[in-house]
TrEMBL record:
Transmembrane segments: none annotated. Pfam families: Acetyltransf_18 (PF18014), Acetyltransf_7 (PF13508). SUPFAM superfamilies: Acyl-CoA N-acyltransferases (Nat). InterPro entries: Acyl/Acetyltrans_Enzymes, Acyl_CoA_acyltransferase, GNAT_dom, YitH/HolE_GNAT. PROSITE patterns: GNAT (PS51186). Residues 14-157 form the N-acetyltransferase domain. It comes from the Bacteria. This is N-acetyltransferase. It comes from Hwanghaeella grinnelliae. PANTHER family: BLL4206 PROTEIN (PTHR47237:SF2), SLL0310 PROTEIN (PTHR47237).
Amino acid sequence: MGRKTEQEANGSEPNVTALEARHLPGALALSQEMGWPYRLEDWEFASAMGHGLVLERGAEVIGTAMWWTYGQTHACAGMIIVTAAEQGRGYGALLLDSLLQATEGRDVLLSATEEGLALYERRGFMKVGPIVQHQGLFETAVPSDSSDGIRSAMPADLPLIHTFDRQATGLDRVPLVNALAREGRLTLMERAGRIVGYVITRRFGRGYVVGPVAAECGDDAKRLILSQLSTLHGKFVRIDVHARHGLSDWLESLGLTRVSPVTAMVKGRQPVPEGPASMFALASQSFG
């Protein structure tokens, strides 16, 4: 038999258990250690919308993993963290394997940092493409868009927004979109009496996040983004965009610096959009 580690000898091996409200301050401390700008309110929102696991030793939270289910077929995973002092002991793999067991039968999406790529690839995840984070104190003067077609959404618009979001993502995200709309400001774009795009802006981290942004073309996505930036002068702004749509240079020209690229990955089938619309910016790297 192999020699027991000091932790095993002391009976202090960590346990994986379901994330509860009592774990959130510890989870917040983990994300702060990683330099992620989550607030406690962001953890509360994420946990209310999804499911989570924690790795704890006694009362100490040393790791987290979360997922959000979309319809009957897909889940999006995120907030997979292990404290620096415990890394290199297989705890990240333990959390991921527990998450995959809990989501068995679903296709799983996630955004991977460079450090996590090898683990995810060993578990069967495939690369989809880069996601680029842009952020900064927004100080560029942007006039508001006074043209027809962009307006604040009304409660009666939500069913059409849900349809448009499903067409843009190939996913059933009704609970997520409803929750984001309650938390933030939902703006839509119309043309010829139909919705051709929408954006949600909400408080997050150091300031505000602009996303999701769904539209039928890049120019419409830019107009929707500008409609939000015109109200955020002097605020800290974050936008996460799919690199394939080519918005990064434009966002940098507006003063939003390109930082922290990640890789979109999928284990199973990538969802397929149902129409001409695309998702240009994410609600978050965790939610997709």
